[in-house]
Design goal:
499 residues, alpha/beta, ten-stranded mixed sheet, 12 helices, binds flavin-adenine dinucleotide
Length: 499
């Protein structure tokens, strides 16, 4: 209420500021449409510490292979509301039973973030003017990705810099941290992860933008996530950063042995030029009777993850190597914790609805392969990237093994060669294994953990299964919106405490 009254009181002034901000964005917006607001927090001190050992849920043939991750330890677990946000007071996580959370600023805290030097930002200073009782921020014109979807967050002075920890540095954690930094320049955002690229599941992925369907999430929501991701990456693919970010358009065919029930998938009007294959095209695939031709986007995953890290550093987000055993560890240092731990959430929050679907792929040198070919069953695919071609694949539910399976390697290679015989000449075959963090639906949800009267605000964003790259930007934007709701809740409680 206090915030509402404040907003009403200053609404005229606010409109002026918003208009002014938009003008600032236009004046500053010299880069491509995907460019986030240029917020410089000064000389960045955050540094990524070297990540040793194996990735969570990923491995390559050369890698040392760890044992399987432990199975769910704590209670709790996920509700499955699609994009619904819920505000639930939960019991004590079993891992933290009997422990009192550390107070803010407690001595001996495992991570004490360095203080960022107080250099002023071009945009946060000029485009986020102060006004009595608070500070107005605008999520840039869709943070340059979805015009019109602007969001205003009001940060009162005592909450001027909410501290947000994003746990996880796969495509979901990095893109979520970026969306939060873009939509709330006043937030102090940290990425904490036990592994960074190249040791994450996201590094193993083929990175094709062909959505996987989540049975527990409404189709229109999935389509929205995909569309936002496609639009964002399409803008990058049309910019001078395309090569560094590893994003490119790729055309090709999805072929079926029998005509599928659904001839027009829900995403057919998001990708470019979707159409049935012609008879002439189908002649290339004598074992297949039906096919769809279209152009989509592909991320070369390790370069894209590095590009995201670079963007994060440029917006003042710091990154630290740290394994989080319990989300309560972070309570003393952060106002909000965002859980983007992929398959790691099975252990971290004891989500029994989350299970691994093991995937093995080959990354080969075959530069003459320019078009993608995907068998409609989704098991066999050939996805050319900028430097290497990904050949897939396998799908083994509930397998935690990160060891490459030589039998699967041969099977993948033979299946791909039957679709594209020229692959027999492929060179330098590397085998990669990753664990898809699978669930009926992505857990994209706000949760309030409660322990001995102390509350911890958490936003979950994990469980993207076989389609994390295809929807990452859409789910990251939704997670950032949920973080905005948490900030509003914190401000509400701090205002009430003062009354
Ligand atoms: P991850 O990449 O696993 O990241 C999780 C992060 O959390 C890691 O940094 C990890 O170290 C960290 N972490 C975990 N637990 C903890 C903890 N306790 N403390 C601190 N840090 C922690 N998707 C597509 O859209 N298109 C494709 O073509 C595609 N191909 C794929 C091919 C294969 C073989 C596989 C395996 C997957 C593929 N996917 C594809 C799916 C995609 O890879 C995933 O959906 C996506 O990578 C999930 O990203 P994530 O960030 O949630 O998980």
């Amino acid at each position: 209420m206090a915030i509402l009254r404040q907003l009403q009181k200053h609404s005229e002034h606010n409109q002026l500021l918003v208009r002014e901000e938009k003008r600032q964005y236009i004046l500053l917006g010299t880069a491509g449409p995907h460019e986030p607001p240029r917020v410089h927090r000064g000389n960045l001190q955050g540094k990524k510490l070297s990540a040793g050992g194996e990735g969570h849920g990923s491995s390559s043939a050369n890698a040392r292979l760890p044992g399987s991750p432990g199975r769910g330890a704590s209670a709790g677990g996920g509700l499955c509301p699609g994009t619904n946000s819920s505000f639930i007071s939960r019991g004590t996580p079993s891992q933290a039973l009997g422990e009192r959370p550390r107070r803010r600023g407690a001595a001996g805290s495992p991570l004490r973030p360095p203080t960022a030097p107080a250099t002023r930002s071009v945009l946060s200073h000029s485009a986020s003017p102060r006004f009595p009782g608070g500070r107005l921020f605008q999520a840039g014109p869709g943070a340059f990705s979805s015009p019109g979807a602007s969001l205003l967050w009001l940060c009162t002075p005592e909450m001027a810099a909410p501290k947000v920890a994003v746990v996880g540095a796969g495509v979901i954690g990095l893109s979520t941290a970026l969306c939060i930094a873009e939509t709330c320049p006043s937030c102090s955002v940290m990425v904490l992860s036990d592994q960074f690229s190249p040791n994450t599941t996201s590094d193993v992925a083929a990175g094709m933008l062909i959505p996987h369907t989540y049975p527990g999430t409404p189709i229109h929501v999935q389509k929205q996530w995909f569309k936002e991701t496609f639009t964002y990456l399409f803008a990058i693919s049309n910019s001078a950063e395309a090569s560094e970010a590893g994003i490119h358009l790729v055309s090709g065919w999805q072929v079926f042995k029998n005509t599928p029930k659904e001839e027009l998938p829900f995403w057919s009007d998001v990708v470019l030029g979707f159409r049935p294959m012609s008879e002439a095209e189908l002649q290339k695939f004598p074992q297949h009777r039906f096919g769809q031709a279209f152009t989509t986007l592909k991320c070369d995953c390790p370069p894209y993850l590095l590009w995201l890290e670079k963007r994060l550093k440029a917006t003042g987000v710091q990154m630290y190597t740290r394994k989080v055993a319990d989300l309560w560890e972070l309570h003393s240092e952060y106002n909000i914790v965002v859980n983007c731990t992929g398959i790691g959430a099975h252990q971290l929050v004891g989500d029994e609805k989350l299970f691994p679907v093991r995937g093995q792929v080959l990354k080969v040198h075959a530069p003459w392969v320019k078009n993608f070919i995907r068998d409609g069953d989704g098991l066999t695919y050939i996805y050319p990237g900028i430097h290497r071609v990904t050949l897939g694949g396998t799908r083994e539910k509930e397998s935690w093994s990160l060891s490459p399976d030589p039998g699967a390697t041969k099977g993948i290679f033979d299946r791909c060669c039957s679709l594209e015989p020229s692959l027999r000449g492929a060179q330098d075959i590397k085998v990669k294994v990753g664990l898809r963090p699978s669930r009926q639906c992505v857990r994209l949800q706000r949760e309030v953990l409660s322990q001995g009267g102390v509350k911890l605000l958490v936003v979950h964003n994990y469980g993207h299964g076989a389609g994390g790259f295809s929807v990452h930007r859409g789910t990251a934007k939704e997670a950032a919106r949920l973080v905005g709701e948490c900030i509003a809740a914190l401000q509400g409680s701090s205002s009430r405490a003062k009354l």
